[in-house]
Structure formats: C-alpha cells, structure tokens
Amino acid sequence: MISMTLLVALVAFALLFDFLNGMHDAANSIATVVSTRVLKPQYAVLWAASFNFLALFVFGEHVANTVGKGIVDANVIDATVIWAALFGAVSWNIATWLLGIPSSSSHALIGGLLGAGLSKAGLGGIVWSGIFKTVAGIFVAPALGSILALALVLIVAWTSIRLTPLAVDKRYRRLQLVSAALYSLGHGGNDAQKTMGIIAVLLYSQGLLGDTFYVPLWVVLSCYAAIALGTMSGGWRIVHTMGSKITRLTPAQGFCAETGGAITLAIANIGGIPISTTHTITGSIVGVGAARRLSAVRWNVASNIVIAWFVTLPAAGAIGAAVYWGTVLVGRAMG
Question: Which pTM does this prediction carry?
Fold first, then answer.
C-alpha cells in the first residue's frame, strides 16, 4: 500500500496524460473542420471539447475495462508499473507534439503499460486477448475509416449530382458541424476511457475498490473533463499536418472523413477496443483524398505518419521498461 500523497500524485499524473491526450489529439477532432474553414480554430476546439465530455453519457466503460484489466493482468499492476507506463506515454506524447507528428496517444499509453508490465512479470503477466485487440486495431481502424470515407464520397457524389458546386458546399458546411460533433463524441468515448482504466486499476491494486474491478464515478467525470480541457488547448502543429498536408479537403470531403471515422470509433467503443483516433482519422482523410485520385494524397507525408504509428508502441514501451527498472533500482538503493 502506497501513501495517500503518492496515490494522489499518480492520479494527477494520469490526468495530466489525459489532458495531453486531448491536446495532442485535438487535431483528430478539428483538423478537417478548420481546414475547410467551416469553423474558426477557437470555436472548433470548443465544439470538439463539448462533445468529448458529452461522450460520458453515450458510451459505457468497455474500453476502460480493456485497458484496466485486459492488457496487463490487474493483479500484476502496482504503483511502479503505473508510474512507468504514464512516464513512457507522457514523454512520447510531448516529443511527438513538439515535432508535429500525429502519433497515437493510445498506443503510447498501452506501449508504456506493456513495457512496465513485461519488466515486472514477464510474458506471463500479459493478457494476450487484449493485445490482439489492440494490434488488430492498428491495421483495422485506419483501413475501415478509409473504406467508409471512400463509400461516403461516392454516396455524396451520387446524391449531389443535380446540385451546383456552391449548393453542395453550402449543404456540407452545415453537415460538417454534425460530423465533427460525432467524431469528437467517439474520440472522447475511446480516449478518455483509457485513462479511466489506468486510474481504476491503480485504485484496485491498492485495495481501494474491494475485490471487484470497476470505474468510480469521480474517475469517469475527471477523465472526461481532463480530455475536454486538453482539446480546448489546441495542438496547432498537428492540426496543420492532419488538415492540409495529407490532402486538401472541401466541406463535403471533410464530412465524409469525419463520418467514416466516427462510425469506426463507435464500433470500437461498443466492442471495448482501444483503437487510435489518430490512425482512424488519418485513414479516413487518405480515403477521401484517394477517391479523387491517388496523386491527391501526399503519400510522403502519409508514409511518415504511418512510420510514427509503428514506432510509437515499442518506443513508449522501451521508455516504460527503462523507467520501471530505474525506479526499482533506486528504491533498492534507498531501502
């Protein structure tokens, strides 16, 4: 049992990660609506943050349960594992945010948790079904987002065939507010729950939840509030990459990308799959760009983003493992 001071500090550190997650992933929710000039940046972040928070009334706690007890065995996790996991995730998030790289906050957290969990308990402490879900999500989420966005582009083209370009633009400028809201709802529902799972398993490891793992209401409220506040703070470097460097978007195309991504996130939230919102929206944007023509996508930018996806999990895992062993060695030296 750790001291109450240390417990509060770790919970605060987890909420800091949640805040940074919102800031880092603000681009996922607002890049398309800003790049198409449907909303000014300051209004876009308020719009997205509001729906990030409202997600707590829409989705259950399936993703929180997966992260809390479905990646590393909950009985293996202790305060040192949580500390190392969060350090790995936060440090990787800050580095990629400063560089403007839209990497996955989700996989940074899971990578840090895996690295620390493996360091403590080896392969026996890993819940492989949860790892399978997460790894599958790396490939399935962007692919599904891309396919859905591409299908929506075709539907929009067919239903708008008798409209003038100006009328199409006017229609989808309004509808993009809806699609941005839906995507932000899915973003909050998936990403806030990952931190909920981390805090809940920390409390469980200290015997504060009794014999049954669950997510207390105060954890739910604080995590949704933290991610919403993070989204409000922006993340403009990544907004620029997501909103204009991959491909140029019209309001109709932005609607298709956001809606395709929102459907993908809703499926993942219901299934308890901790997917990357960054992967999802990037795949959707690529799908929209490719619907025009393959050359409309700046494949060199997209390929750099994909490389960051695959580096994130092992990089955060390596940091988490190093911090775990460093903390253990310092503890032994002092004790």
Answer: 0.85
